[in-house]
Amino acid sequence: MFKKSLGIILAIALVATMTCIASVTAFATVDTTKIYTVAGAQGLCEASDPTSTGWKPADAANNMATIDASSLYASYVPADQIVKVFTNVAAGSYDFKITTNNAWDNGEYNLTGDASFGGANATVVVANTGDTVVIGFDGTKAYIDYNGPALGATVAPTEVVTDAPTDATVAPTDATVAPTDATVAPTEVATEVPTQTTTVPADASTATVKTGDTVTFTVHLTAGTADAPVVAIDDAIDFSNTTLQFVSASFPNLSGVVGGTTANATDDANVSELNFNASVLAGFPAFAAAGGADVAVVTFNVIADGQCWANSNMDSCYDVNFNDFVVNNVATNGAVLSQKIDVKAAPTTPTEPTIPTEPTTPTTVTPTDATVAPTTIATDATTVATVAPTTAATTATPGGSVTTGQATSVTVLFVVLMLAAGVVLFARKRRVND
Fold first, then answer.
1. 377 φ/ψ sector (left φ>0, alpha ψ -120 to 50, else beta)
2. 428 and 318 in one domain?
3. What is the tens place of the pLDDT at every residue in 179-221?
């Protein structure tokens, strides 16, 4: 009974597992009733047409299809997925999306999923001119097989090294062999550190700055109409990170902004980039007004003396009818795109005023040469000592204070009077005794 129950449980679990697998597989399967097209930058999608600006969702030449079972890709592209192969692509960076049924916003896909209504583009970077790029779609998102072999290309056979034939020619045994005790100096190969030279873009805004200054970089746009305003903008601002340090960015006439809060590294160690995009169906009518409006205002701190620069690279800008106003940083259809850089010098620290020294008040010293009459003390016991009056100094300091000379005279007079009194008492006592 137990074994029978266990068998039933295992069977149910197996059926459930197979059902889940089937569901997941069905979810990831491409809908074959729809047409999927790679729409992207010229050079990838319209490389054969130099007059094209790219981004054509209805270009049948870029439609995706299931892989041919006889091709070299069949071994690693699932049969239920579709791809588009681009051969002999020029070196560069290319943005793209996968579109549905030859139109925008029917379902657009990037490398992470659905990117309809102005979502972020997918990007492939081609390092070498002539490379092949394979873009695939699994039903939910795009993926890239960069630099795969061209479709139908012949792959050179792999040469397997076998044992050398027995009739191989053997070098003569009398060949001169260097002595084994010879000291060979090691060959030192100098490792040269490449110096990276940054080329300032020709259309960049530049300024000469000093440490402590503040730099403001502004991107300005005039585009669209009141009836068909701009609905999407995708921009990247590059700047020299050797002189500028990103502080903040504001987007006074945009809403729904994604990015624009952190400066990102680039392939050039001396250049950083601020990426952002914004898209709303209501649009941004401010840009259609006379004179246009600011797209972004970026603030930097200056961290080194020298020349600084910043440059806007607006990738795309279009209205609700998908009329392009900016493509690859080139304005079109009457749009005007401009940028400027402003420098605010660091405030100068004021020098503290010198406090004048108070004049020194001279000290008045009263002379100590007051004349004191000599005191005569009689040596005869019967003679009363006569004390001559002491003449005190009569000079007084302002305000009635007693001077040093007066104090000395009074002290001497007091001592003399005490001595005289003592002599008189001593003389009387002696007379009584006698």
1. beta
2. no
3. 555 455 555 555 554 455 678 998 899 999 999 999 999 999 9
381 and 286, same structural domain?
no
Token pair listed for 371:
């004349």
Q: Are residues 339 and 223 in the same domain?
A: yes
CATH number at residue 337: 2.60.40.680
**Distance between CA 313 and CA 297 in Å, rounded?**
14
Cβ-Cβ contacts under 8 Å for 23 (sequence gap 6 or more): none
Q: Whose structure tokens read 């440490």?
A: 211
Domain's final residue, options 126, 146, 166: 146
Q: Record the tokens describing residue 52, joined without a space.
A: 């094209």
Q: Please state, in angstroms and rounded to a whole number, the distance separating the CA atoms of residues 331 and 271.
A: 24
Quote the percentage of the chain above a pLDDT of 70: 63
Distance CA 111, CA 374 (A): 122
- Answer yes or no: pTM beyond 0.90: no
pLDDT tens digits along 258-314: 999 999 999 899 999 999 999 887 889 999 999 999 999 999 999 999 999 999 999
- From CA 381, how far away is CA 432, in angstroms rounded? 13
Do residue 308 and residue 266 come from a single domain? Answer: yes
